[in-house]
Amino acid sequence: MRRLQLVSAFIVVISCLAYYIIKSSSTRMAALRLVKESNLKLDLQKKHAIVVGGTSGIGRGIAERLARAKCSITIVGRESGRSKIVLDELNKIVSENNAEQQKVNFVKCDCFLLKNVNKCVDSILEDTKEKGIDYLVMSQGMATIQGFTPSKEEGLDQKLTLHVWSRATFATRLLQSLKMSKDPRIITVLSAGVHSSYKHYETDFELSRGNYSIKNAADAAGFYNDVLVEKLAEENKELTVMHACPGFVATNWGTEMPSVLRWMVRGIQVRSVYYP
User: Fold this and answer.
1) Helix 81-97 and helix 57-68: axis angle, to 10°?
2) Whose C-alpha in 33, 138, 204, 260 is 20 to 30 A from the C-alpha of 174?
3) How far is residue 3's CA from residue 9's CA, in Å, rounded to a whole number?
4) How wide is the angle at C-alpha 182 spanned by C-alphas 95 and 129, nearest 5°?
5) What pLDDT, in 10s, does the model give residues 90-128?
6) If we measure between CA atoms, which residue out of 30, 90, 37, 34 comes closest to residue 60?
7) pLDDT at position 239, please?
8) pLDDT for the residue 144
9) Burial class (CB in 10 A: 0-12, 13-18, 19+), 62
10) pLDDT at 41
């Protein structure tokens, strides 16, 4: 009798959990469907977006969606076979749109070094000095388990340079071009809402004095991005600024990780895509 009661209780609990998962998943899918339907109505003709990290992953997805909405795109990234594929795809979308003023450009930049970032910004400012830009999207990054890895030229950690220092440089230096727009927006895609604060920011701001770890690097990057967008929004009332974390999505994120970790990530991605 006791065993029968336990089995019955177990079945009830499992049934409730299954109902909750299916119900919540259905609700989220319905909300996602509404968002997609709304996005299809977007018309961004005469708008211009800079997408840093637009040759892969979320950056590429954002660039393609903006292009379908007839927005002109400047991709910033490392030149490679992958960048050529992305540019070909974007130009194909532009051709299908048949929008006369829509353009696709590519600016080569290895964001591991700030001197490269500054050179890239100089080029963008020169190209946009008459019309400005409307959107700045930053998704450049890397997922590794390496320790503190400073560049020989500048002494800054590679991961933090991609996730923080390069983003701050793009955002602050491109402000003058963004302010020429009637609706300027900046989005940095990283870890909003999922990271902790970095406790040693006053004594080890660059994580170069012994406090570097995978967790601290991740927390510092997210924390610093939070501070960056809050300060930009506070000082530039006409600017819309966002730090976003889309979670695990169907991209090639984690390719730099060891095989075991990479396949674990792929499993989480499958779960997130098919059961959002």
Assistant:
1) 20
2) 204
3) 10
4) 70
5) 999 999 998 888 999 999 999 999 999 999 999 999 999
6) 90
7) 97
8) 79
9) buried
10) 73
The SS3 call for residue 10 is: helix
Residue entry with tokens 């602050």: 172
- At residue 273, the pLDDT reads 46
Q: Running DSSP on this structure, what letter comes out for residue 264?
A: H
Q: What pLDDT score was predicted for residue 176?
A: 96
Q: What is the DSSP string of 124-166?
A: HHHHTTTT--SEEEE-----------B-TTT--BHHHIIIIIH
Give the CA-trace dihedral at 169, 170, 173, 179, to 10 degrees.
-150
213: left (phi over 0), alpha (psi -120 to 50) or beta: beta
- The full set of domain ranges for the chain reads 45-245
C-alpha span between 244 and 193 (Å, rounded): 8
Classified as helix, coil or strand, 263 is: helix
pTM of the model as a whole = 0.80
Q: How far is CA 215 from the centre of its chain?
A: 19
For all residues of the chain together, what is the average pLDDT? 84
- Of residues 181 and 24, more confidently modeled: 181
pLDDT at 251 exceeding the cut of 80: no
Nearest partner of 224 among 172, 171, 168, judged by Cα: 168
Tell me which architecture the domain covering 45-245 has in CATH: 3-Layer(aba) Sandwich (3.40)
